[in-house]
């Protein structure tokens, strides 16, 4: 296990270095002058030059890159021109909101998707199975931004039950969480159904049923544990979707999380913020992949990493 963790850590460092380098040079070589965007289209040349110096864009490209990497080694992500303060502080303000949205959406999706998928597998062809199948297809077909617009129109504009946007209260979290969770619930339901059907067809399950063991015990004690392995894989992959997909939903609902911060930073070419957020997102993806691999070993002791 120690060797496995060391290899994964070294691989993660290499991936982070490549991604950070690529993002740095791509944004620096993109057309347009970010200093003018920040200063304003009507700003004088002197004002634009001052902003350019503040952003460090007046130095050679290689010098900018070396300074940025040195700052990373000292845990210095730089200073945001848009917000006028350290980027670490800016990200720290937005992280709890994105984590709250991700946790709420994931919890809701698991609460709905797993029972629906398991019930569909236990009673295939039943009304429950048909309703779950129709709901899964419908939810997978609806883009989250369109679902978000429907939720805003119904619950905020027409019924006035929930706020249409913002992040100032717990109620503001409801509609974004539902918009993100809908597709996840459909994916979890489909995966759980397929995995459970496969497990219930195994010889050891038929043997347990033949011995007269209660069906509930067969499903929960013998079947569910093995069926969870592919489900864990999908959950891990969808955690990445939670981070990436939340960008659209946060923007739609004006929910001040990392996705909302990223869109604003890209809009004004706040390079340092975009680079820092890229680092955060990639590190999160790598950490999620590692946790999924470790979860395999916890669920199935036969899986061992060398």
From TrEMBL:
PROSITE patterns: ABC_TM1. Gene3D superfamilies: MetI-like. Residues 95-292 form the ABC transmembrane type-1 domain. Signal peptide: none annotated. Its main location: membrane. SUPFAM superfamilies: MetI-like (SSF161098). GO terms for biological process: transmembrane transport. GO terms for cellular component: plasma membrane. Belongs to the binding-protein-dependent transport system permease family. This is Glutathione ABC transporter permease. The lineage of its organism: Bacteria, Bacillati, Bacillota, Limnochordia, Limnochordales.
